[in-house]
Specification:
The protein is α+β, with helices and mostly antiparallel strands. The chain contains one helix and five strands. Strands 4-3-2-1-5 form a five-stranded antiparallel β-sheet.
Length: 115
């Protein structure tokens, strides 16, 4: 009799473990798809800013902001050229939090942005 309870308990534990693993795999797939969608959406947004002066806010340890003219958006990367030089920066779309046009004052001159 105790052997039957033991087998039943063992089967119950195995079923719960397999369901938990399935849930974890489903959650991982959901997160992966959401990231892909996010990249796609941010890429589409940045395509609208090509040729414009922008400020791109990123999640990064070194600098939290990139400013300049958007030159191109390819796959998972955006190329930004600095305003008064030929220096270019490449930013991964996964790290982009938001994008906006560079702010200007009443006279049309660029405002100074402090981080």
């Amino acid at each position: 009799m105790q052997g039957a309870y033991f087998i039943f308990l063992l089967l119950f534990i195995l079923i719960l473990a397999s369901r938990k693993k399935k849930r974890r795999m489903t959650a991982a797939a959901f997160i992966k798809n959401r990231r892909k969608k996010g990249k796609k959406i941010m890429g589409e947004i940045l395509n609208a800013f090509i040729g414009k002066e922008v400020v791109i806010y990123t999640i990064n340890d070194q600098s939290s902001m990139v400013s300049g003219v958007v030159e191109s958006v390819t796959d998972n990367w955006v190329t930004v050229r600095a305003f008064d030089s030929e220096e270019r920066q490449v930013v991964n779309l996964e790290y982009v939090m938001r994008v906006r046009e560079y702010p200007r004052d009443k006279n049309g001159k660029r405002k100074v942005i402090f981080d």
